[in-house]
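Researcher: Here's the sequence for the chain we discussed earlier.
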Amino acid sequence: MARAILKRVLIGPPLATSQLIHERVTKFKGLAVFSSDALSSTAYATEEILIVLVAGGAAAMALALPVAMAIATVLAIVAFSYYQTIHAYPSGGGAYIVAHDNLGLWPGLIAAAALLIDYVLTVSVSVSSGIAAVTSAVPALQSSRVVLALLAIALVATLNLRGVRESATIFALPTYLFIASLGLTVLVGLWRAVGHAPVPLQIEATGTGTFAPLTIFLILKAFASGSTAMTGVEAISNGIPAFKPPESRNAGVTLIWMAVILGTFFLGVTFLARAFGIVPNENETVISQIARHIFGTGAMYFTVQAATALILILAANTSFADFPRLSSILARDGFLPRQLSNLGDRLVFANGIVVLALISGLLVFIFGASTHNLIPLYAVGVFLSFTLSQTGMVRRWWTQRGPGWTRNLVINGIGAIATGIVLIVVVQAKFALGAWIVAILIPTYVAVMYKIHQHYDEVRRELSLEGVHLPPPIRHHKVVVPVSGIHRGVLPALRYAKSLSDDVTAVMVDINPIRTQEVREKWERWGMDIPLRVLPSEYRSMVEPLIRYLEGLEWELGFDEPLTLVLPEFVPAKMWHFFLHGQNALMLKIALYFQRRQGSRITVVTDVPYYFKPRGAAAAPFEGPRAPLVAPIATLMALLVGVGVMFVVALSHGWPVVFEEVLGVIAILIVAALFFLLLLRSIVT
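Model: Thanks. This is the structure I predict for it:
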C-alpha cells in the first residue's frame, strides 16, 4: 500500500513499453516542452544587452535595439537551418548526430559535449532567472534565492519523471500563460509608446564619474550577451521522435512557431525598454520594470511576474527533455555509461533526469543562483554546437546532391558562417569573464567520453566469442566457507557448500581466542564433517588474512581450477539494524571485487542469506515476494518533510542564509535518493 501511494504521488504508476507510442506529443504540447527554454530567454536576453551597454551611457543604450535586430537576424538564419536539419534527420539527435555523421568522430563528440554542458547551464540559468523574477516581486525572499532555486530544480525533475506527455500537459498552462501575458504587455506597451518620445534615461556614471568609451568591443560584448536569446533553438531538432506522426512535419511547424514568437517578443521587449527609459538594476529585472511601467503594481503586473517566473523555472524542462535523450544516444553509441540508455517506469530516461538535476543543482549552489555569474558560461557551447551542426549539413548537401541541394546548402552555409562569427565574438567577449571554464570543460568532457568508448571496445573484444573454443568440463571444485562463528545463519551455507563439492573447507579468522575455542568445540557437532581452518590475525583484521589464504590456494590448486566462496550472510528484519553489524561478508566481497588477480582461474562468490523475522512475527504462508525498500523510502520521505518544516522555520525566523542553503542541498539530495530507490525498486520487483 505504501509503495503504491508513494509512486502514484511522485511519478505515477509504471507504463508498459507498448504505451510508448501514446506518450508522444502534439505541436501544441511540443511547443510547451521543447520551446520553453527559447521563449524564456526573452525574460533576460534584453537585460543582458542593457547591462553591457549601460556602462557606455545614453549613447550606448541607444544601440540596444540595433543589437537586438542583428541577433534576431541570426536567429532567423539558425531557425531556417534547423528546419532543414529536422527534415534531413527525422530520428533526432541534433548537432551530435549531424556532426558525427558528416564530419567524423571528434566533431561529433565536441558537439555532444557542448550540448550537454549547455543543457546543464540552461537549467541553472533559467531557474536562477525565475527565482530572480520572484525576488523582484517579493524582495524579502532575496536572501533565500539559492534554496528556492534548488527546490525548483527538484520540482521540475520530479515532474519530468512522470513522463513526456504528462509533463507536457502540466507545462502547457504556464507556457501559454507566459505567451499571453508577455504578448499583452508588448501590445499594450507598443500602443502607449508609439508616437511618444522615449523617456530620458537616468544613468549614473561609474566611480570615476565618466562613462566607458563607446567602442566596437563594447558593442560586440553586448551582442554576445544578448545572443543568449538563441539558446534552446536546437531543442526541437533533438526531440523529433517525441512528436506524433508525421514527426518531421510537426517538429518543423513547431520550430517556426517558436522562432516567430521568440523574435517578436525579444524585439518588442528591447524596444519597450528603450522607449520607457528602463535601466537595469540588481534588485528588479527589466521585465518587471516594463510591466510595472505599463500596468502599475496591480493584478496584471503580478500576473506577468508570476508567468515570467514560471516560464523561467519550467524552461529547465527543455533540458530535462533533451539532456536524457541525448545522453541515451551517446550511451547507446558507447560514449557514456550504459545506464543512461535505460527507460524508467514512466518511459523516460530517468537516470539522465536525476544526473542533470544533481549537476545543475550543484552549479546553482556554487554560483549563488546568480544569472549574471552564469551567463558568461552559457553561450559558448550553444554556438559551438550550432556551428558544427550547420557545417555538417553543408557537407551532407554537398555530398548527396539530392533535389534542392543547392538551396539547402546555401541556407545551412549562411547559418554556419553566422553562428561561427557569433561564436568567435562570444569567446572573445566573455573569455575573461568565465567562458574559459567552458573552453576547458568541453575538451575534458570529450576526452572522458572517448576513454569510456575505449573501455567498452576493450570489453567487447574481451567478451567476443571469435576464436574461442569450448573449455573442458570441470573435474575438481574447491569450496571455501568463511565463518565468524557457528549458528543458524551458518548452517544453510554449510549445507549448500556440501551440495557443490566434496572438497569444502570452512575458514575462521582468530580475532578472539576465547570465542575461537568455543567455535571449535561446537564445530564437532554442527560442522557437518567440514574441516575448520583457523587463520591467525596479528593485527585483528578480518579481511586481510582471508585474502592471503585465497591467494595461497591459487598456487596450491593451480590457476586453472575453479574456486567458490560461499558466504553466509544474515539479513536484519529492519533497515536500520543493518548498521549495527560488522558486515564482514560485504567487506570481503568488496575486497575481492576490486582485487586484481593474475591467471585465468575462475573465482565464484555465492551469498547464502539468512533472513531474520520481525519480533513477534508468526510464520505466515507464502504470499509471493514482498515489495522491497519500503522502509528506506518511507524514511527518506519523513526526512524530506522534516527538512521542509525546518526550511519554513528558517524563513520565518530569519536564520542565516547558509543554513537555508544547506537545507536546500539536503532536500535535493534526498529527492535524488528517492528517485534512485524508486528506480532500483522498479528493477527488482
